[in-house]
Amino acid sequence: SKRVAILLSGGGSNMMTLVDSMTGDHPARPCFVGSNDPNAGGLAKAAAQGIPTGAVDHKPFGKDRGAFEDALRALIDAHAPDIVCLAGFMRVLTADFVQAYEGRMLNIHPSLLPKYKGLHTHARALEAGDAEAGCTVHEVTPLLDDGPILGQARVAVEAGDTPDTLAQRVLTQEHRLYPAVLRRFASGDRTPVIL
Ligand code: GAR
């Protein structure tokens, strides 16, 4: 089966839904969970599932993104993944890193791309008065939050929504969308998943 490495920076709820999905006849299995933050909550959750984990703290590298990424790549590549899933990984990646996993690295982003690349997506959707919000899984290319869309899920914006309430409702959809996209992608099918 395909080997999947997952990178995160935070609590790892998306990582957990991916891990939980990779059982039975699923075409992939988790091989590694990595982070730029040694204290990320998701690392402990993965370790508790018996998955190898590791971190490269970006802070000591300062502005030297290349050296940070070389160290992270060495850690990832030691586990020989076929697919790399970014799941709440909050460092911008250089073209060199992206090219090392070209065509086999996915990201989940909490907006309906191409709208609201970057940060504060929910506040920006509310500010714009959008009637709907959502999340996107896409193939990672050197441009930030760009690349072919592999799936989207939409949610209605409700009266009284704040960035936090909207984020929570979108996150629930992320937990449906990302496993559905990974399963399809790991089986060699890039047809977008529309939920
Ligand atoms: C998710 O909402 C994900 O879409 C977002 O961070 C959250 C991570 O939550 N990712 C980004 O904003 C990427 N720029 P999690 O750690 O519970 O999966």
Condensed summary:
The chain has 195 residues and is of the alpha/beta class.
Give an overview in words.
- This protein is an alpha/beta fold and 195 residues long.
- It contains six helices and eight strands, in the order E-H-E-H-E-H-E-H-E-H-E-E-H-E.
- Strands 3-2-1-4-5-6-7-8 form an eight-stranded mixed β-sheet, sandwiched between helices.
- Helix 4 (95-100) links the parallel strand 4 and strand 5 (105-109).
- The longest helix is centred in the last third of the chain and has 24 residues, at 163-186.
- The model has no long low-confidence stretch (mean pLDDT 98).
Q: What value does the Rg take, in angstroms?
A: 16 Å
Q: What share of the residues lie within helices? A: 25-40%
Order of helices and strands: EHEHEHEHEHEEHE
Please report which band the strand proportion falls in: under 5%, 5-15%, 15-25%, 25-35%, 35-45% or over 45%.
15-25%
Number of helices: 6
Average residue pLDDT = 98
Instruction: Tell me how many strands there are.
Output: 8
Strand order of the largest sheet: 3-2-1-4-5-6-7-8
Could you name the ranges where pLDDT drops below 50 across 5 or more consecutive residues?
none
Bound molecules: glycinamide ribonucleotide
Structural class, by secondary structure, is alpha/beta
Distance between the termini: 26 Å
Strand count, sense and closure of the main sheet? 8 strands, mixed
Overall morphology: globular
